[in-house]
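Our platform keeps sequence and structure together, in a single record for each protein. Such a record has a labelled line for the sequence and another for the backbone structure tokens. Nothing more is needed to write down the fold, since each code stands for a local backbone conformation. For reference, a complete record is included directly beneath this paragraph:
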Amino acid sequence: MEQVMDILLSIGALAFVFIAIGFCIFSHELGHFLAAKWRGMHIDAFSLGFRPFWKKKINGVEYRLGWLPFGGYVELPQVDATDAVPKAADGTELPRAKAIDRIITAVAGPLFNILSGLLIACFVWWIGMPQDSPKMREITVLSVDPAGPEYAAGLRPEDKIVKINGEPFFSTWAQFVSKILFSIGKVDLEVIRDGKPVTISYTPVDNPNAPGRLRSEKIAWPFFQPLIPLELVPEKGSPAEKAGIKAGDYVVAIDGMPIIDFDEFLFGINLAGNNPIRMTLRRGDETVEVTVRPEPITPSPGPEFSRYMTGIYMQPAGAEGGVTVAGVMPYSAALAAGLKPGDRLLEVDGRKITAPAEFSETIAKLKGTPFRLTYERDGKTSEVTLAARLITPHTIGVTISLLDHPTPIQQFISTIDMSYKSLRGILVRLGNRLGLTEQTSTLKPSHMSGPLGMGLVLFNSVRSASLISGIYFVVVISFALAIFNLFPLPVLDGGHILFGLIEIIFRRPLPVVVVKVLSTIFVTLLISLMLYVTFFDGKRIYYSIFPERSDVPAAKESVGEKTNANPTPKQP
């Protein structure tokens, strides 16, 4: 049954991808179509989908419906500036369209992308966008990887980051990380240590141990872990309220293990099952402890939210290799097997373990099958047999507010800002490699995404996160499609706009031969770029299906065996 549900969820996510990308393309072409109709231009055909199975000609325009609902297209021979004499599909010669009409028609495509994006953005604004963390004005450092540049620059656990590059922030953890990724040159972190400000200045470097699929990107993910504050609001009559949890309490730890994000909060509750857990909370300036007994979530959210786990918190073992046990959860298989903090995990059924993510992936594949675990304690190697336990969703009846409600304009501006900073970072890196600038950036051309990459993001958003996350990315894609098409390059809408403006200013069009040469050059460059981007998108898809075949080390996560439950705020 679990496998069937998993397949159905994947099919639904895949269908969403095709419909979403198709909608973005169709709305773009619809803009061209309506503008061309308004300006009295000749239209050969307008199609919804590809590979037509139905055609009907109305007032000279052939309307089509295609079997493949991946978008649409409109045939406008008078917009093509490479033909001295435009011709209809039947070979009839057409008058050359006025420059202003071509400009209006070209602008309409991106304009409709923006309008449709703003319309969907209103829905995101209303429902709320799930966040990875609350927005924070300061970030407390939980741990720092000694191998990273931040540690070398002096960043230490318990430092409180209050500024980045001289600016205060009010950001989620993901938004804070993006500020680092988009930085040019050095990053300056102002931290408060023992009540005094200290500046940590360092140059970000590629982190092969970035979490999850990001590790294959070799991206400059921070080499430190934050302490994420999770504010609780207990429901009336819930186990949390009965245990003494109050609105505004922040989670610090569960059974002595620090909680750094929402996934770990769920992990601690789900692993305990129906057994009581000891929660450490921050209430104002006080630290309080309560004992609460989780209850099963009813009705069950489905088998896809259950996971096999051993109850081990992990961290990289350092230079000696392997994985170190950072903590062992109560009521877990690891505790029953006698594992202790400080143990170094070496092998599972004779297979070497090099990173926390690798151990977690191996356990997920074994499910509840017993396995031999080889570990080292105090210089001595031992072996124990244990089996992961199926962990089902439980709740203590609290709400964690992790929703943001960005306005449509904020979403549009955010997409423009992200597009600008991404392009700036890539160009700075290329300029640095060519010796044109001493500035540096960690962004690479390989970090760009094409249709395949956007499809993967949409699929993962719906499949592993939530429908609203997928809808939000549709907004981003719609805006990004508009921005990309407005670049003043031949073959793009921006190129048609540029040629039209040149014709208006100089009162004559560019020579057809010049337009043809420029179009050929940029078509070749664009196809080459798409092939380049598609190659890396294909690698991302391949490694998402076969993560064990990745050509970079597995991620060194500070804490292992997190649940992959839906991160949308719920009643844990």
